[in-house]
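Appendix B, record 7
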Amino acid sequence: QVQLVESGGGLVPPGGSLRLSCAASGRFFRIDAMGWYRQGPGTQRELVARINRFGTIIYADSVKGRFIISRDNAKNTVNLQMNSLKPEDTAVYYCWTKPWEDRDYWGQGTQVTVSS
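Structure tokens (predicted):
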């Protein structure tokens, strides 16, 4: 079993910044990939950004140039720096991880609201 603990999130005006953090703990041999997904009101969960243990990154087109994902392999943590936030970024953000030879795991979700 893997536990994911998220922190960050909250209310921010348009153009503002927020930083999300997530730490993985529990029983696993190795974390292969970590990342963030989000689900807005009435929408399906979608990829925001993910990074593998080699540092290969995938961003959703909607966040390229504004969000930065980073990872500490030794600490099994992943961060998401979100800049130039827009109202359409409002969603519940979920930390995600895929350990080696194991299933996907999800965090409990953290609310990000972009509003003036």
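Remarks on this record: The mean pLDDT is 95. The radius of gyration is 14 Å.
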